[in-house]
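Board notes (copied after class):
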Amino acid sequence: MLRRSREYQSTVSTTLAQQVLDSLYELLRGFQAADERAKGELLRAVLAKNPDDVYGGLLTVLMRMVFLLFAEDRSIVPTDPKSKQPTELYVRHYSVHGLFERLRADAEHYPDTMDQRYGAWAQLLSLFRAVYNGCKHPQMQMPARHGHLFDPERFKFLEGRTLAEPRLPLVSDGTLYRVLHNLFILDGERLSYRTLDVQEIGSVYQTIMGFDIEVPTGTAIALKGKRKNGSVPASPVVNLETLLAVKSAERVKWLKENADTELNGEAEKKLKAAASVDDLSAVRIIRRARSPSRLSGRRSNQFSNAWANTQRLPKSLNSRFATSPWAVRRFSWKPADNLVTRS
């Protein structure tokens, strides 16, 4: 029983870590969309001065959420003295749990317009501010924490204070619903953060550490990554202009060395014959899965298409691919895992 319990804890940690990483990708896409709505003004200065601040800000948002979920599940939030339960004011207007329930209900009633609805991000920012500055409302007594994690001055773009006329970024409710769904639902079941120990939360944090953000030039694509020694899969980002400039006979070798991707048959012939970026975009690059868990549960003797033209990829295809012009790159782990998401 003890062995099964440890195996289950390991499974929970691994799955949750992957879903938190997916949430990081989702937030990245959400802020890219918000930046586009602000005509590039939201993140222009941040990306020009230090692009890693974008990654740091998104990482901070996720860790704030995990912290708050743990606190709410353990009732370390404003509670009613009699019932010992979180106050109605906190649950209805501030709590992360309450926000998720409302977004889930909205997604059931308005599934096609979630990415055109806004408001959830403002609620999260209000909660972050309340944790940092405290609150003296009779139904929501909170001491000021003034901690590093919730400091609003660290990443001003999160509150839209990088704009000429500061206003909240338009991060869609759909983005936050997908982020929270990854944090709440594990294998179809509701996850209780009350039962997580320090080691499990630490493994989640470790998974999303060690990245930075780069803005690729030209047309770039992402390949579905391979899992390395049980870690989360890396997703190499390939610049098609760079690949096109490689001599035809050396392109297969270049992909193997730079993207850990192998070709065979017709795809190899098309790659060598490609004379334009559009020709490269039409090539199907496939990768053999070496374990059942590496390619979305496919069996190890099957193949999976791992080439995604991010200029044309439908948003609904796979949350691990994006139409973003940015890439998140792992910089401090194994050299083979240098590119971890898409552009």
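Comment from the instructor: Residues 286-343 have pLDDT under 50 and may be disordered. The CA atoms of residues 40 and 291 lie 42 Å apart.
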